[in-house]
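== Folding task for one protein ==

=== Format: two labelled lines per protein ===

==== Paired sequence and structure tokens ====
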Amino acid sequence: MTVTASAGGPRVGAAAPDLTLPSTAGTDVTLSSFRGRRHVLLAFFPLAFTSTCTAENCAFSEDYGAFERADTVVLPISVDSVPTLKEYKAKYALRQDLLSDFKRDVSRAYGTLLADRFFSTRAYFLIDKQGILRWQHVEAELGARRHDAELLRQIESL
């Protein structure tokens, strides 16, 4: 199945739109709080407990140390509620915290919301320590995903 995300997301070379979302850690996470300290990989995913999303999030967890060594925090974002994401994180023993875009505002701002389905397509936004969007990729199909080796190569190029 081919999907098309809504237009109007951020452009490479521009400041990434700031965001604050609730997380599975029980606190809100704000993108700009990482400025000057860490790179950020926003990883929008459609829905918890689905096969491709689970494979992707388990891979992020398995490669957690590699992202840490690359001075990068991975922030997976879905439209699922925080309680759903907490259950998902616990079931798969994920190391990374997950962010809930339950109101879909961040998915709209980043142009990833599939309006007819009311969830986000799978998309990646790599933001450098200065808060500038340096790379983005929106998957053409819901079942497709980037592998961590490719994502880590993008981070190395910063």
Notes: Residues 79 and 137 are 19 Å apart (CA to CA). The two ends are 32 Å apart (CA to CA). Helices lie at 51-62, 64-69, 82-91, 105-109, 148-156. Residues 51-62 form the longest helix (12 residues).
